[in-house]
UniProtKB/TrEMBL annotation:
PANTHER family: AGA OPERON TRANSCRIPTIONAL REPRESSOR-RELATED (PTHR30363:SF44), HTH-TYPE TRANSCRIPTIONAL REGULATOR SRLR-RELATED (PTHR30363). SUPFAM superfamilies: NagB/RpiA/CoA transferase-like, Winged helix' DNA-binding domain. Pfam families: DeoRC (PF00455), HTH_DeoR (PF08220). The lineage of its organism: Bacteria, Thermotogati, Deinococcota, Deinococci, Thermales. Signal peptide: none annotated. The gene is srlR_3. GO terms for molecular function: DNA binding; DNA-binding transcription factor activity. PROSITE patterns: HTH_DEOR_1, HTH_DEOR_2. Transmembrane segments: none annotated. Residues 3-58 form the HTH deoR-type domain. InterPro entries: Carb_Metab_HTH_regulators, DeoR-like_C, DeoR_HTH, NagB/RpiA_transferase-like, Tscrpt_reg_HTH_DeoR_CS, WH-like_DNA-bd_sf, WH_DNA-bd_sf. This is Glucitol operon repressor. Keywords: DNA-binding, Transcription, Transcription regulation.
Amino acid sequence: MLASERQQALLALLKQNGALRTRDLARELGASEATIRRDLKVLSERGELQREHGGAILPEQEPPYSIKIGQNQAIKEAIARRALSYVEEGMTIIMDSGTTTLALARLLSGMRLRVFALDLGVAQALAQGHTEVWIPGGLVRNGFYSLTSQWALDGLAQIKADLFFLGADAFDLSEVTNHTLEEAFVKQKALAVARRTLLLADASKFGHRAVARVTPLSALYRIVTNLDHPALAQVIPVEVVHA
């Protein structure tokens, strides 16, 4: 198979599956992993796919942060106010990346808490007061400000938290999903080290599915949202808010 033919076949596989590991692509296309990595590099440089640790996904369709920050702001603030009721002085909390968790960070700033922020904007908002703010380290995702990479995973592995406030790119009746594998790995580690996880997500995130699985809904403590959906409430406890 010519390189150009193999690359088109590779893209076709990604369109069918959303995301694939390098080893899986090599097996499907009958090529070595080294050859597939070269193909991924070429296609990534052309903007036809996005390389992730150990594989690739189609170019993400995530809205720019500058757009996300202005969307559904009243609802995000209402979700943040309800989420605040779960926080007690002295807690250790992990705050995920995202504009809804940013709204909560602004409310938490100044409280007597230890907070591990997975987002530079969230950390900055928290640090305006006297709250103890930690950043576990890692690679900053340009344009979105979240922390990823093994450094972030290693930092989270050292702690135990009372609460993890999880953000989401998408969720449905079965699971929470994310646009990138790298962010999903960090969220999964935070879930593992927190006693309880609350998903903070407005209704616009529901009914969609991004390429990277984060967690089944059954692993969550509850969801704080403006979505009033009877079927969802049968799966997981839901706190429904109104702007």
